[in-house]
Write a structure and sequence with these properties.
This protein has 183 residues and is an alpha/beta fold. It contains 6 helices and 6 strands, in the order ααβαβαβαβαββ. A 6-stranded mixed sheet has the order 3-2-4-1-5-6, with helices on both faces. The longest helix is centred in the middle third of the chain and has 17 residues. The protein is globular, with a radius of gyration of 15 Å. The N and C termini lie far apart (35 Å). The N terminus is likely disordered.
Length: 183
């Protein structure tokens, strides 16, 4: 079992690149875009972590801020009208979402990290599945979350700022239509 888990972490699971047909599904609300927050060096959070205090958290680097801005430009290039943005409550996710300048992010606790016992991965994943159990959203939707949440839903271990376009209704494992590296 440990070998299989290690193998899953080392070998990337393949998914096609996002072509026009996959982007069309996202624009039509028939798929969502889930992304890991952009670059925030380190792992987990420092001792003394307080959710409401960004100074106690691992935060975006200058490169992470630039990645978020580039993501915003890419998504505006793909769709010029309203986009719904949901985010974890962690500052690195909220900052990623805000710096994309797509919409005011809505906090969705199901996207909060459950790394190192901070949350309940099974309950949060189930809440996310219920939230997106419909075959279509009203408009294109972006979810900004953490590696553990992304991996729990997709089986993919994403790099910072990596995203996936996922078919709706959301399932586990998710139907990943495309992976997108940070622009």
């Amino acid at each position: 079992m440990r070998f299989l888990l290690l193998l899953l972490l080392i070998l990337p699971l393949s998914a096609p690149e996002a072509d026009d047909s996959v982007w069309a599904l996202w624009r039509e609300g028939k798929a969502i875009l889930m992304m890991r927050h952009t670059l925030a060096p380190g792992t987990g959070d420092p001792a003394g972590f307080v959710l409401e205090d960004c100074s106690t958290q691992r935060n975006l680097s200058s490169e992470g801020k630039q990645q978020a801005e580039r993501w915003g430009q890419l998504l505006r290039d793909k769709y010029s009208a309203d986009i719904t943005v949901y985010s974890s409550q962690w500052c690195r996710c909220l900052d990623t979402a805000r710096l994309m300048q797509l919409a005011t992010p809505e906090v969705l606790p199901a996207l909060n990290s459950f790394f190192a016992g901070r949350g309940d991965g099974d309950k949060q994943t189930q809440a996310l599945l219920q939230q997106f159990a419909t075959a279509q959203t009203a408009q294109p939707t972006v979810l900004v979350t953490h590696q553990v949440n992304f991996t729990a839903l997709t089986g993919i271990f994403p790099r910072s700022g990596e995203a996936a376009i996922i078919a709706l209704p959301l399932t586990q494992p998710a139907a990943v239509l495309a992976r997108i590296a940070s622009p």
